[in-house]
Amino acid sequence: MLFFSAIPDREGIAQIVDPAQLNMAYPGRLIEHSSTIVLQDYLCLSEFSRENMPGNGHSEVLKLLAKTARADLDPWFAQCLNEQIEGGYFPNSQNLARLRSDIVARLANYRHQTEMVAAVVDMSGGLNAALTGALLKAAGWRVRGLTLLGNRNCPASAQAAEACGMLGIDHLDLGLSVGYQAIFAALDAVSTPDAGTDKINHSDLGARLRRMLLYEQARGLGATVASSADLADFGLGTLHLHESAGDLAPLLDLTRSWEVPWLARATGLPEASRNLTDGFILKRRDGADIRVSPLEWDIAVFALADAANRHPRAKGAALLDAMGLQPSSIPRWAVEAVWDRLCGTWTARLGPVRFKQPSDRLAVFDRLDERLFRPAVLCRTQADLSFPTNLNAAATELCRGLEDRGMRIVTAESCTGGLIAACLAEVADSSCVLEGSFVTYTASQKIAALGVSSQLIEEKTVYHPEVAAQMAAGALKRSPKADICVAVTGVAGPTEDQGKPPGYVCISCGLQGKAPLAQEFQFFGGPEEVLASTILTALRMAHGAIRGG
């Protein structure tokens, strides 16, 4: 259900719209409610048949996601859902069954390796809380479910007690009404008016008080605090890292629209406890309210992420246009609202802001913890091959440019050690443009693998523009299917080498059949900063070369 009292135009300026016009555009969808127009059920998900969404995966997703048969999912959202199912954003039952087994195994390993046996869960969290308790119990934890509500008579209190009984876990109902009201009144009396408000936010304060009580209960039991937050909580900014994330968050990577309810069904939670939230009411900058369902939220976030990867230079309205969102359309208003919420909550997802020093002191603790103290289940077992967003954007832009021109690229790298090629390889479908890479770290390899003149190296050292140019020429000669080469040689640091200061880098770029051109650069910062600057500059030089710049 979408609520709005004013509709923004293309520039985001609110425009009052005649309800009769909307009834013509969306017949049967509108009702009037006081001064607010309600677009009823336009964004609600309906029951889809196999004909609507071909394939078992599609119908399975939609059957579980469906909440009403009164209206169809908007065509733009339906198309995105199709693409995202195919792209693996909504995994099938086989993969989800493996996911559930993996979560239970990791929780069991964590319990065993840390010698922790008990966990406390705030059961006021509905479906998520029940699922968190069920997964912990399946992993052998002793679970205590707490009900921390200001009103014991509200339905959530009875649902929490029922869930604990069904799961066979301890339940403790802490009535907080009197204590909450006393604290609220005391703080209201001393709060300082700010930005037009004269009272504290009782909802936020209540959440913090519940968190404090949860940790006190855990301390008394020698237990860990398990959070029931999911991916939607993370995106909406309702979860603050290092403040309210708890000690253990098994659902944090899971979507509320699909993975959480699927796991709840597979875990045997009763149908009544698996009811999803009706949606999120988001506030747009023009003051209008819009209700977005969990499914629409997930689709919009994934679509924004995909669009940002496909169009690395597009932002704002240009990115929304590139997503096929028509101005003054329902899907556009919904995605704009998701955008605005993400924009206003990024600090909550980041955690404490810190500015990295040339010598990363926190990394010392990270290495110590991983080497000596963390349980094995938390230690890294996969290489972190992700690149910063500006490098990924430059690599994506270069790959798209090469693909449009039917060209392939080869790299010849010294100080970057193959990172330019790795950055290109991270781009989706890069295999159609990336021919390969020569990593020639030593002078002897530059001579043997690329045919760089030994006399040149002896006279000029390996850190010279002519060496970079010969590296590019040699790579192209040995890669007949490549159309362009970018080559780098330089001193990443932290100390000088062969008379060249840290940050001195030579980059050459050449097209097949043409003499490569080379340039000298002086980058600043530590080795990581120098390498990042080198990669970015090399990618941009290559993109400029294929464009004739």
From TrEMBL:
Domain CinA C-terminal: 394-543
NCBIfam families recorded: PncC_domain
Ranges of residues in domain NAD/GMP synthase: 102-271
Name of one Pfam family that matches: CinA
Protein name per UniProt: Nicotinamide-nucleotide amidohydrolase family protein
Keyword annotations of the record: Ligase
Keyword Repeat assigned: no
Presence of keyword Ligase: yes
Organismal lineage: Bacteria, Pseudomonadati, Pseudomonadota, Alphaproteobacteria, Rhodobacterales
Natural source organism: Paracoccus broussonetiae
InterPro entries reported for this sequence: CinA-like_C, CinA_C, NAD/GMP_synthase, Rossmann-like_a/b/a_fold
